[in-house]
Amino acid sequence: MADKKVTQLTALTTTAAPDLLMIVDDPNGTPVSKKITVKNFFGAVPSNTVFKDNVTVTGNTVQLASAVTITKTLTANTVKFTFGNVPASNNATTVGMAVGEARFTNNYIYIAVNATTIKRVALEKF
Q1: How far apart are CA 120 and CA 90, in angstroms?
Q2: Chain-centre distance of CA 104, in angstroms?
Q3: Which residues lie below 8 Å from residue 6, measured CB to CB, with a gap of 6+?
Q4: What does the pLDDT look like over 113-126, one tens digit per residue?
Q5: pTM to 2 decimals?
């Protein structure tokens, strides 16, 4: 394999956790070629990673360790939300809520309908 360029290698269309990737450690200092498993590579991705294009998730479960911002539309059969704080006022700008943002507590759902108005809906047992 040492006599081939990376572009000449056979493409892989799926990966497994133990698969190896080549990585150049310290490319701006003293570059050294090293290996890393797919599992360790993606395990090191920061939790605040921003995706600037469409993200498609396949499978039955998506587990998120921190807050998620959805800027367009979320369509799902089941969504579990983390409860938020009660807004200190009904002014979205004052409390730092964006238009369309929603917060949930045990008793209410709060939605910022415009820059100066937050509306709430009481939650009732059924």
Answers
A1: 9
A2: 19
A3: 22
A4: 899 999 999 999 88
A5: 0.40
Tokens 């807050």 identify what position?
67
Q: Which amino acid is at 80?
A: K
Q: What are phi and psi of 110, to 5 degrees?
A: -110, 130
Summarised one tens digit per residue, pLDDT across range 21-74 is: 888 899 899 999 999 998 888 777 666 666 666 666 666 656 555 556 665 566
In the numeric block, which tokens belong to residue 46? 């920061």
Q: From the centroid of its chain, how far is CA 100? A: 19
In this structure, are residues 92 and 80 in contact, taking their beta carbons and an 8 Å threshold? Answer: no
DSSP 8-state class, residue 93: H
What average pLDDT score do residues 64-90 get?
Answer: 64
Bridging pattern class, strands 20-25 and 32-37: antiparallel
When computed from its CA atoms, the radius of gyration of the chain, rounded to whole angstroms, is 22
Specify the 3-state DSSP secondary structure of 42.
helix
What are the E-state strand segments in 1-126? Answer: 20-25, 32-37, 102-104, 108-114, 117-122
